[in-house]
Amino acid sequence: MSSITKYFQLDELHTTFRRELLAGFTTFISMAYILFVNPSVLGASGMDKGAVFTATALASALGCILMGVLAKYPIATAPALGINAFFAYSVVIGMKVPWQTALAGVFVASLIFILITIFKLRELIIDAIPSDLKYAISSGIGLFIAFLGLSDGGLITANKSTIVGLGSFSVGTTWLTIFGLIITAIFMVRKVPGGIFIGMVLTSVLGLVTGLIPMPKHLIAGAPSLAPTFGVGVMHIGDINTIQLWVVVLTFLLVTFFDTAGTLVGLAQQAGFMKDNKMPRVGKALMSDSSAMLVGSVLGTSPVGAYVESSAGIAVGGRSGLTAVVTGVLFVFGMFFSPLLSVVTNQVTAPALIIVGVLMSQSLKYISWDKMEVAIPSFLIVLGMPLTYSISDGIALGVIVYPITMITAKRGKEVHPIMYLLFFVFLGFMWILNIE
């Protein structure tokens, strides 16, 4: 016990072993929903849900443990919501890229992520993308996954006259979504730790009681096999041989990188770790995250990123890496609850997607809406993602327009050369989509 206290510097951080255990458990409960939501989202691309479940648990566990042991931060990681939607709905379903090739894209992006971390190129990349567009990307992804939740839950449906319309309230499962959304919203407003997870549990219970969800035969079972997804991405690296697929790789890299960087800085500020506006050991934190992303792509899941739900553990006193280690260990135990996958239907996960969309959309307040040269491209990104049903298309719209509006505002010199490069890359990307 004393060696653990010394390694994680519990005394210096004014925390205790018991408090760190509680913080780790709180963080796990707050983000445990990803064990069931991720297989649901990636399953839409044709991936085996059981294999994704196990891959999600293992990749999350590895990321958390590395973050705790190496970077010594109370920050948990797991396959990120938003980028998994990009993987399934934009790349696989929208672009008709096989999920095996998309997984290879994640693998390549993770290798690049590790390289830029080793060579400390992250500052250059962060500086190249203007902060307004970073916030727009985060918010746009939030609106996109909320749109998915509303659709999966039956609250909105396709409508020939108005494109989309209100769903039918004569369908029982739609009311299940409504119940889940209301009860989860109440928990979130009351700031109940693990509110999203508890909302999913109560919605599942209501579904079982009313017969809208079939009763599972078991609660605990061995972890589902990784065979359907293990190593598939590595074997399909050769499939990444077009500009379109390299744009996909770039998007995986950029979205994951900036989402993680922003989350890390935000959580470090909450916990009081920032020094002179810089985050100590950020290199180790990014290395932990990118290593988990690499392993996750081999196991069979979308990119891993830092989770804002870690704030729940920090809020109850978590200050050391022990918090993240505890969370990682709990993810390992979570593998043995795979039978619950049949209980966690689209109507159960839909409220979680909607609420997470709300959380991600909070970045909108940081965009300079009073400056049209950044407001217009930011708006196109935010609105473009849900309306084109594609995260990459939304980003492309904003990145293409940004240099034009900045030059028009006589601020062209403020645009980083990399942004001009991305202008041509995304123009080519849009052209490729058109000819197909």
TrEMBL record:
Keyword tags: Cell membrane, Membrane, Transmembrane, Transmembrane helix, Transport
Domain of life the protein comes from: Bacteria
Entry GO terms, CC: plasma membrane
Bilayer-spanning residue ranges: 21-38, 50-71, 78-95, 101-121, 133-151, 163-189, 196-213, 219-238, 245-271, 291-308, 320-342, 348-367, 379-405, 417-435
Membrane protein topology class: Multi-pass membrane protein
Coiled coil: none
InterPro entries per the UniProt record, alphabetical: Azg-like, Azg-like_bact_archaea, NCS2
GO MF terms, alphabetically ordered: purine nucleobase transmembrane transporter activity
Subcellular compartments: Cell membrane
Family: Belongs to the nucleobase:cation symporter-2 (NCS2) (TC 2.A.40) family. Azg-like subfamily.
Protein name stated in the entry: Xanthine/uracil/thiamine/ascorbate permease family protein
Upper taxonomic lineage: Bacteria, Bacillati, Bacillota, Bacilli, Lactobacillales
